[in-house]
Amino acid sequence: MDEIEILRLSDKNVVPTDDFVFSVIGERKEYWQAIISHASENYKDVSGSWNYYNDGKQWVYKFVEKKKTLFWAVLLRDTFRVTFYFGDKAEPIIAACGVPSEIVESFKTSKRYGAIRAITINVYSKTDVENIIKLMEIKHKLK
Questions:
Q1: What is the Cα–Cα distance from 82 to 73, expressed in whole angstroms?
Q2: What is the count of structural domains for the chain?
Q3: Are 94 and 135 in contact (CB under 8 A)?
Q4: Pairing of β 46-53 and β 116-122
Q5: Cα angle for residues 38, 41, 47 (degrees, 5° grid)
Q6: Averaged over 108-133, what is the pLDDT?
Q7: Alpha-carbon distance values, 141 to 34, 36, 46, 134 (Å)
């Protein structure tokens, strides 16, 4: 992945606002809102916040249900990227959930971080939003 596409929000004194986020992602604002709306309407006790992480020296959006992180998001030029982390027990569920085979394969071959692996989706279309919602459902149901 081309690291240039990541919009590094590196000033820890400047918290990203909705207006700023929407100015960066442009017409894909509706996709951001669709993901957040779906979660807010279908799950209890969800919230999202921008947090500054010293290890990456940037702001990252963390979306949680109670204390469980559902996903992470970063801004890209004219869009955004959503990342989920799943353990091995999620592999057959992900394979059966109806996401494209490329997503399943990327999970199977992704780098392990201890007992978890990542699935990352750059959001460019409504189909990407639909895949994120499917993965969010899995994350919500898993203990």
A1: 4
A2: 1
A3: yes
A4: unpaired
A5: 80
A6: 96
A7: 20, 17, 14, 11
Structure tokens that stand for 93 in this block: 């569920």
- Helix, strand, coil percentages in the chain from 3-state DSSP, rounded to 5: 45, 30, 25
pLDDT digits (tens, 9 = 90+) for 10-56: 888 989 999 999 999 999 999 999 999 999 999 999 999 999 999 98
Q: What domain range is 7 assigned to? A: 3-141
Q: What is the DSSP letter of 79?
A: E
Q: How deeply is 27 buried, as exposed, middle or buried, from its count of CB atoms within 10 A (0-12, 13-18, 19+)?
A: exposed
Q: CA nearest 86: which of 75, 74, 97?
A: 97
Reported pTM: 0.92
Centroid of chain to Cα 110: 16
The pair of structure tokens assigned to 97 is: 């959930």
